[in-house]
Design brief:
This protein is α+β, with helices and mostly antiparallel strands and 287 residues long. It is 15% helix and 33% strand. The strands form three sheets. Strands 1, 2, 3, 4, 5, 6, 7, 8, 11, 12, 14 and 17 form a twelve-stranded mixed sheet that branches. A five-stranded mixed sheet has the order 9-19-18-15-16, with no helix packed on it. Strands 10-13 form a two-stranded antiparallel sheet. The two termini are 37 Å apart.
Length: 287
């Protein structure tokens, strides 16, 4: 199934089931995306029953929102594709070596935005805004000390995420948090695709385009730490909660590593694509 948050006809945000190019309102079944994630198998069956007898709304008639507003910071993996790790270390004159353990940082909840929302550009805050397309995991049930071989059972589904980064702010301190957490700098969506809809999340084409030009093009098979390893690592001594968002890292081709560097500017159209999951289209907008 594909679940989305949307607005239509001036109503407050609703939850919908996406079928082809249409949407089925689920407001009478699930009041929030968190409620959908918390549903039992019987609850999912109820949604399927509801869908079979409900009116459908064309997707073109609604505004899709960020599919999930996380209850806590988005957890992210840094340098989780080998070529990206190498390009960033080379750019920063660091020794070129792959991480031995997952590199974890977070993005503030207020950075999360929707699949077509503008990406704010304020030159008084940052002039080095960069793009990073990623596959994101949505955790489906609570777990701690999860063995890697059981980790996929804790995945509810997937969404597309772009870890838009203020590189100048990122490099001012020893932590990534500030440079990663500007408002509107975590576009997500366009929906959450449930785990069963993606036969192999470790073999998905992943792309980022700026103004229609390919800047990043890779495959999730090139992750250094796969999804089960990541979940096992994060849950070691730390409880993962339903609705947690985990971004699995970005491939090479980011703007900061290009010669010369190529950062986002007002008017740029940022397109983020993960095969079988969805596509984001966000315009960089001066504020």
């Amino acid at each position: 199934m594909k679940f989305a948050r949307y607005e239509a006809n001036g109503r407050s945000p609703q939850i919908g089931l996406v079928v082809d190019n249409e949407l089925i309102d689920l407001s009478g079944v699930a009041p929030s995306m968190q409620a959908v994630i918390n549903l039992s198998n019987e609850g999912m069956a109820m949604i399927a029953h509801h869908a079979n007898r409900s009116q459908r709304i064309p997707l073109k008639d609604v505004k899709l929102l960020a599919p999930l507003l996380p209850r806590r910071n988005v957890m992210c993996l840094g340098k989780n594709y080998a070529d990206h790790a190498r390009e960033m270390q080379t750019t920063q004159d660091e020794p070129v070596e792959l991480p031995k353990f997952p590199v974890i940082f977070t993005k503030a909840t207020t950075s999360v935005s929707g699949p077509t929302d503008p990406i704010p550009f304020d030159p008084n805050v940052s002039e080095k805004m960069d793009y990073e397309v990623e596959l994101a995991i949505i955790i489906g049930k609570q777990g701690k000390n999860i063995p890697a071989e059981q980790a996929m059972k804790f995945v509810f589904g997937y969404t597309v995420l772009n870890d838009v980064t203020a590189r100048d702010l990122q490099r001012q301190g020893k932590q990534f948090f500030k440079g990663k957490s500007l408002d509107g700098c975590c576009p997500t969506g366009p929906w959450i695709v449930t785990r069963d809809e993606v036969p192999n999340s470790h073999d998905l084409e992943i792309r980022c385009l700026v103004n229609g030009k390919d800047m990043q093009a890779s495959n999730t098979r090139h992750m250094i730490f796969d999804i089960p390893t990541t979940i096992a690592y994060l849950s070691r001594g730390m409880t993962l909660l339903p609705g947690d968002i985990i971004a699995t890292g970005t491939p090479d081709g980011v703007g900061a590593a290009r010669t010369p560097p190529q950062f986002l500017r007002p008017g740029d159209v940022l397109t983020s694509i993960v095969e079988g999951v969805g596509e984001l289209r966000n315009v960089v907008t001066a504020v």
